[in-house]
């Protein structure tokens, strides 16, 4: 990292120092910090107490002077310093700043690593919510370039919050993961996340969110032209009393009955006339409005309630 700092600082200095007086100060701060941390014949130990604030000031100066590559490296050095000084919270903030700059520079894998490291540092000082939040911000930053990694980051944030008994705080992350899977045409994965979301909602007694998630999962399976899986999903979710007695369950049953009858007009009527569907997330409403897909009459008919219940799917 020291060599990278030296190279980056040298290249930015010659190109921009005459245009940005702040760069002269930034390079001076960086040189002082590097002198304090670089071991030599005359310097046998690193002075991170003195060097860390210099790296922080240099990072800010380089960022303001629009030299993001050097600013990123300085933030990473500042994070190292704060970690050595037993301040993981501040170290995490610096790593998140490094992640933002890495994204700006198109260094997507480095951005992922920085956001994950920031999350670890926040968690190290017992800050579960900020740890999950930085994973979410990281996922949003990289989801266009690293979709699979972004989904994993969203779901890791969910798991972190659930382990801390903060299930309701995970809902936005579930929503983001579902939206991303739908965008990728990974409908079975989207439905699975919706079921998991419903289970999480059950734990914090968020009955309305739970029922919406289960109905949404059925709709996603129908959009995926998988009537059998939609029916199985409905049967499994109906084992939960709160859902089986809900308006969402009734709507799902109407949809499935129309499918089993092979009646596309009735499917469209159920969707267009349902105030329950209109209150689902926008992504799910958009899918529902496109039902039915495929040849409904040729679809495999599965009568509601015929499939064997599977309790393991909801545990």
TrEMBL record:
Q: Transport as a keyword?
A: yes
- Its GO CC terms? SNARE complex
Subcellular location(s) of the protein: Membrane
The processes (GO biological process) annotated in the record are: intracellular protein transport; vesicle-mediated transport
Q: Which domain of life is it from?
A: Eukaryota
Membrane topology summary: Peripheral membrane protein
GO MF annotation list: soluble NSF attachment protein activity; syntaxin binding
Q: Does the keyword Transferase apply?
A: no
Q: Which keywords, in A-to-Z order, does the entry hold?
A: ER-Golgi transport, Membrane, Protein transport, Transport
Q: Which Pfam families does this chain map to?
A: SNAP (PF14938)
Q: Which residue ranges run through the membrane?
A: none
Family designation: Belongs to the SNAP family.
**Protein name, per record:** Gamma-soluble NSF attachment protein
Species this chain originates from = Physcomitrium patens (Spreading-leaved earth moss)
């Amino acid at each position: 990292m020291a060599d990278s700092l030296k190279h980056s600082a040298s290249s930015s200095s010659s190109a921009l120092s005459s245009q940005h007086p702040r760069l002269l100060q930034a390079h001076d701060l960086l040189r002082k910090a590097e002198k304090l941390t670089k071991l030599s014949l005359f310097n046998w130990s690193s002075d991170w107490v003195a060097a860390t604030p210099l790296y922080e000031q240099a990072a800010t100066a380089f960022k303001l002077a629009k030299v993001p590559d050097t600013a990123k490296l300085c933030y990473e050095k500042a994070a190292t310093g704060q970690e050595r000084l037993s301040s993981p919270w501040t170290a995490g903030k610096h790593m998140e700043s490094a992640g933002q700059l890495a994204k700006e520079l198109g260094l997507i894998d480095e951005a992922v690593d920085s956001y994950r490291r920031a999350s670890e540092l926040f968690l190290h000082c017992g800050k579960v919510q900020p740890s999950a939040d930085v994973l979410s911000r990281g996922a949003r930053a990289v989801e266009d370039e690293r979709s699979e990694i972004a989904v994993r980051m969203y779901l890791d944030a969910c798991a972190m919050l659930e382990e801390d008994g903060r299930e309701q705080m995970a809902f936005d992350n579930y929503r983001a993961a579902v939206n991303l899977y739908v965008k990728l045409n990974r409908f079975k994965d989207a439905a699975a996340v919706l079921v998991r979301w419903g289970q999480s909602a059950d734990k914090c007694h968020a009955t309305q969110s739970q029922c919406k998630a289960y109905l949404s999962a059925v709709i996603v399976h129908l959009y995926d032209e998988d009537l059998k899986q939609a029916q199985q999903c409905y049967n499994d979710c109906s084992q939960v009393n709160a859902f089986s007695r809900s308006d969402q369950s009734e709507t799902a049953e109407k949809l499935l009955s129309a499918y089993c009858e092979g009646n596309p007009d009735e499917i469209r009527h159920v969707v267009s006339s349902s105030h329950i569907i209109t209150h689902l997330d926008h992504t799910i409403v958009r899918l529902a409005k496109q039902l039915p897909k495929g040849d409904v009459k040729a679809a495999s008919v599965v009568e509601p309630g015929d499939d064997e219940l599977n309790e393991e799917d909801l545990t």
